[in-house]
Amino acid sequence: MFLLSFRHRDALATSAEKAGWRAIAARRPEGVERRFIASGAVVAVVDTRGSPAEGLAATRALADPVEANAGALLVIVGRNDIGALDALFAAGATHYLASPFGEAEFAQALRFAERHSDRLSGGWHARNRALAESDGGLGWRYAPGMGVTLGEPLRARIGLPTSRADGLMSLYHLLDMEGRAAARTALSRLRQAGTRTTAFAHRLPSGEHVAHHLHIDPAGGVIGSIEPLEMAEEPETRGRRDALTGLRDGIAARRWLETRLKAGTPVTLMLLSVSRFDMINAAFGRETGDGLMRSAARQIERFAMGAGGRTAMVARVAGAEFAIGLEEGEPAERARLLADEIARALTRPFVSGEHMVPLGCRIGMATAQDTGDDVTGLMRRASAALAEAKTGESGTVRTIGGAEAVAVALGSRLEVDLRRALDQREIEIMFQPQISVTTGRIDGVEALARWRHPELGELGASTLFAAAERSDYLLPLSEHIQRRAVALAAAWPERLSTLRLSVNVTAADIAVADFADRFLAMIDESGFPRGRLTVEITESGLIEDLGQAAALLAALRAGGCRVAIDDFGTGYSSLAYLKALPLDYLKIDKKLAEDIEGSSRDRVVVRGVIEMARSLGLSVVAEGVETASQLALLAREGCNYYQGFLCSGPVDSARLAELVDQFG
């Protein structure tokens, strides 16, 4: 077990030892997540008594690693802090114990938590506990009359050529002055009546910072175990499992890959991202989302393992992301066929409770290079391929080679950089003009985001939103862009005071029940008139629940905004959306605008879309117009507005004012 207690560490650790547990105990919350993972514990205990705020923060930090490793998280609260249980539960605690309590109650609480962990792991923890307990690790044992016996790993770590058998002083002399003082204090605590375990921090002769845990042996000796406080390059972790799906977790996946790459075994790695998961959780709730994730995991595992004993690894490495590793004997063609099979399987509707929900996925593939490839390089290429699959238009599965990955390999770091980017105002808002076909005047603009990355330069919206989807940061990013765009427009000079502003709303946004109220309140707070604002929702990203989407968009229209369907013609339910949703504008996707210069059949399609929109009372905006001939053909078919590089790309407010003057 791993224990964090700000005031009662030794007493609780002693109680746990009496109940048969080996406790890795800490008094400070720094590095608590890493220390829990390195400990290999299946139960984490956070004692919040005396420091409720720090205890809540530690619970929140431990929640994800505990869940990912099929563990249990027990919080201890004071009798007067029962009101904090709601917050602790929301932070991720699975069990609680309120003081005052005795050793027997604490022991029982640990037993309940242990059984919870065993059930989550499908019995894996129970089957492997004996192995874990038999591994001495960085440990030693002292028995009166027999001296000190060091475990082989510890002896190798501190550079002793033989096992010592001449008393505790043999270890004491290996400590520096600070370490010796800390050891004397710890031994003094250990001699106190009723204390069976304590700990102190020091450095090994190598300079490595460690925590030294001391335990009284029931036979009368002392047992010591050493916990590294600095993350080892390759921590020894066994059989790590994702709590929700039962598959390997990310660390186990990397270890599987590393073992085979070091042995020179050819490996193909797939990274698979399940689509629209943020939206599903927001629309149907986490219980439904968890059920769908488990079902998707079983499908992925079934196809990956296949028949005939294929050697494969399947792991859940992030929220909606899976890794599939294939060993030698799987040529590139067969790996690609397997990826296509998995992709097709995930497009079929899944059932969770009373909901039937269609999923989808994108898959990036990479094969280990012939010379000296490592896990980092292979993962980077597969991540780059996945990013390409998410943002490209060439299909669900993308395979990328080492040279080709250079252009996009840095994409994996963008997920980490994105949170900082919002705080440091690296996300800029630009405005692309929308011009009336009949008057030639700029009547409105669409707000578009650009990321001014301090090292990588300007990054477009597709890269920005792909990073947000991968890092589950789509909703905060969307809100940031909407809020910033409206605030900038509210500060426009007088000559821009008649322009309409269009802002994009994602499918994840409209899946949030109170989005309309919060959105309208944000507009009012900025001072921008509701009547000049248009909400654009991408047709290809709409959720399946058209009733909920229609109600939300109707609320926005009732509040004074207008509604446009963006990128029309890119999805598969266009007619259903037009019939069900309350709209004011239809925006033709740039691909359709380009096609109008193609064959007569292409022009018939564009003409049909425009006529259908006009018959429904909708104004039509064509995107991506780049040539005068495109504009002439669109005008002939009855298009009302256009935007594109024929007029201008995205510009800032100052340049926008110049363009408005130029276009009269």
Automatic annotation (TrEMBL):
It comes from the Bacteria. Residues 411-664 form the EAL domain. Transmembrane segments: none annotated. InterPro entries: CheY-like_superfamily, Cyclic-di-GMP_PDE-like, EAL_dom, EAL_sf, GGDEF_dom, Nucleotide_cyclase, Rev_trsase/Diguanyl_cyclase. It holds the Pfam family EAL. Residues 265-402 form the GGDEF domain. PANTHER family: CYCLIC DI-GMP PHOSPHODIESTERASE PDED-RELATED, CYCLIC DI-GMP PHOSPHODIESTERASE PDEF. This is Bifunctional diguanylate cyclase/phosphodiesterase.
